[in-house]
Amino acid sequence: MTGHDAVLADLSLEISAADLPRVAHAASRLPRGARVHVTALATESAADRVATASELVTHGLTPVAHLAARRLTTADELESTVAALAHATAQESLFVIGGDPRTPAGPYSSALEVIESGVLARHGVRQVGIGAYPEGHPNIATDVLWEALAAKADALAAQGISGSIITQVSFDADAVLAWIAAARERGIHLPVRVGVPGPMGVARLLAFARRLGMGSAAVLARKYGAQLGGMLGSAGPDDLLDEVLAGLTPGHGDVSTHLYTFGGLDATLDWLATR
Fold first, then answer.
1. What angle do CA 220, 225, 229 make, to 5 degrees?
2. pLDDT at 220
3. What is the rounded distance in angstroms from the CA atom of residue 269 to the CA atom of residue 1?
4. CA pair distance 83, 229, nearest whole angstrom
5. Alpha carbon distances (Å) from 19 to 52, 86, 97, 251
6. What is the pLDDT of residues 202-248, one digit of tens each?
7. Please, are residues 204 and 269 in contact by the beta-carbon 8 Å criterion?
8. What contacts 28, CB < 8 A, 6 or more positions away?
9. Most buried residue among 8, 74, 96, 241 by CB atoms closer than 10 A?
């Protein structure tokens, strides 16, 4: 494959339960079996995510429901959520993260604890995605991040569950490529999906970038390669993906793309239609 195809092969994208009414439309514009993540937002319930995942199955897409460890209030909630996904035949692929709350709402303080609970394997989960932070995490030391990633990879392997890694959104191709190379050097060889923002308005993109510590348009333009233009314009991930593609080597292993639909599902689908 050449061009974007090499990085966009087997891509995944992310929606929320609020996109449930758009699932049929999305299915008409995506390859059958495409992986569609259902993110775990604080404003949406586990039942909302299960309903969205079930709808994705109905329309021939592969749901990847998210479980946020620190938002789970009880062990029974984890069990019942995964059981409900299994009832909807939507449990084979999940994504497990720690979640945003500083204080756990229940017994799980990390994604590792959810994986080690045995609940996922018991309900037929076959593949689990885990998160990674190529540019670091504001509240977690880098060595702790590496230790946790290796522990999660080992825990999945011990249960016979396939793993994959999705990186937090980044605007810096060099940082992403360096992180993947470092993971391989550490013996972590799970497939990596590079998390990139789908197309969005420049004003929204700048606001999001500043939340990640990029305080100026100049920094964003340099790291993201975006042609910012006027504030009413839009920017997409084309240049970033080109930089990732140019820097990939066989040593980086299995690398594909995960699209965060911050600019809206339709904008991402429109962008994909031009690839």
1. 75
2. 63
3. 21
4. 49
5. 8, 21, 21, 37
6. 777 777 666 666 555 556 665 555 455 544 456 678 888 888 989 99
7. no
8. none
9. 96
Amino acid identity of residue 42, one-letter, is A
- How far from the centroid of its chain's Cα atoms is residue 89's Cα? 21
Q: Where are the alpha helices (DSSP H) in 108-211?
A: 111-116, 119-122, 142-158, 173-185, 202-211
Closest among 76, 63, 75 to 27, alpha carbons compared: 63
CB atoms within 10 A of CB 230: 7
Residues contacting 153, CB < 8 A, separation 6+: 130, 163, 188, 190
What does residue 266 show for φ and ψ, rounded to 5 degrees? Answer: -65, -40
Per-residue pLDDT of 2-32, as tens digits, reads: 344 555 668 899 999 999 999 999 999 999 9
Where does residue 264 fall: left (phi above 0), alpha (psi -120 to 50 degrees), or beta otherwise? Answer: left
Looking up tokens 């998160």 gives 131
Helices (H) and strands (E) in the chain, counts: 12, 10
What is the reported pTM? 0.90
Residue type for 116, please?
E
Pull the structure tokens for residue 41. 């937002």
Six token digits for residue 52: 């969205």
